[in-house]
């Protein structure tokens, strides 16, 4: 029989499922970030166990296991960074800066902990990279503009009891 008349399996037409992308570079974390990753690992393990126990659809279980592999990899590769001294902009610092005439505070954290809306910026983000190792009062280049950012204040980030950062 000609191959033109054979029925192909439905699996041949499915989109491939890839692993969740791991951010490039080292997996630097704060103490809070490491705790969040460990919480995610536990939650994923519980979810997979529950799905298997209830006999969920295989596709749902595969998706949950994929997420579990991501968080397990992040936990295994996490590099806990020491607390910064606050003399220069570094991982784990809160930084007040002025850009385009507006002063703002950000805290530089790991990739998985980043939440720009909450002022938590990944150390790998262009804004954080531009300010790394700068001192208070220093002007740094950003976005192709010379001296676009003025570093106003640097403080070691403090973890508040409710799990959010505060400055100084």
UniProtKB/TrEMBL annotation:
Protein biosynthesis listed as a keyword: yes
One GO BP: regulation of DNA-templated transcription elongation
Assigned keywords, A-Z: Elongation factor, Protein biosynthesis
Pfam families registered for this protein in UniProt: GreA_GreB
Source domain of life: Bacteria
Parts of the chain that traverse the membrane: none
Boundaries of every Transcription elongation factor GreA/GreB C-terminal domain copy: 86-155
SUPFAM superfamilies xref list: FKBP-like
Any GO molecular function: translation elongation factor activity
InterPro entries membership: GreA/GreB_C_sf (IPR036953), Tscrpt_elong_fac_GreA/B_C (IPR001437)
Name of the protein this chain belongs to: Transcription elongation factor
Lineage: Bacteria, Pseudomonadati, Pseudomonadota, Alphaproteobacteria, Sphingomonadales
């Amino acid at each position: 029989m000609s191959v033109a008349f054979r029925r192909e399996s439905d699996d041949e037409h499915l989109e491939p499922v890839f692993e969740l992308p791991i951010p490039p570079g080292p997996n630097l974390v704060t103490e809070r970030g490491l705790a969040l990753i460990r919480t995610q690992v536990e939650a994923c393990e519980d979810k997979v166990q529950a799905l298997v126990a209830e006999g969920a659809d295989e596709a749902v279980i595969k998706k949950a296991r994929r997420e579990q592999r991501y968080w397990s990899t992040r936990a295994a590769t996490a590099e806990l960074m020491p607390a910064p001294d606050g003399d220069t902009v570094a991982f784990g610092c809160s930084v007040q800066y002025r850009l385009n005439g507006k002063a703002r505070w950000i805290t530089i954290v790991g990739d998985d902990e980043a939440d720009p809306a909450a002022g938590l910026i990944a150390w790998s983000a262009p804004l954080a990279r531009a300010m790394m190792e700068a001192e208070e009062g220093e002007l740094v280049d950003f976005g192709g503009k010379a001296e676009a950012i003025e570093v106003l204040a640097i403080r070691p980030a403090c973890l508040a009891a409710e799990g959010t950062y505060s400055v100084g």
